[in-house]
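Q: What structure does this chain adopt?
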Amino acid sequence: MQRASDGDRAAFEELYRRHRGRIYGLVWRLAGGDAALAEDLLQEAFVRAWQKLESFRGDSRFGTWLHRLSANVALTDRRIRVRRVQRETPLEGAVERSVAGAPDVSAPQQMDLEDAIAALPERARTVLVLYDIEGYTHAEIAGLTGMAVGSSKAQLHRARRLVREGLEK
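A:
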């Protein structure tokens, strides 16, 4: 970490290789299983990490810092996409519905867990991924997303119910 912070690109490449898998898993789930978007978010997260290495104070492990930075990158991207979709003339199609946070009505009858999570509305998926998969608290989720703690809890309850329903189909 220190060598990377001093500008050593090889050291940063090692950090990338070490943390890539976990960060990709996080952004892939937050992107609703969209692999292309997840790759973009992964790259953006590591570019931001490189740019902000000097702000890493060492109060937590580097992986924890990177994880939070990556979650912020994905959530910021989502807010931008939602605003863009809301300004544009709506088009028919699953892409528009999923970006705006509504479930894709054309999802197949048989879904595995990842498909069920990917089919969740955006806010519910975000809370489920951050709370159940990544281990964030509701207070941390509220801080990252700008929603109230109570809303985070309600979205988690909704997400779990929708996943159960999706898996039962």
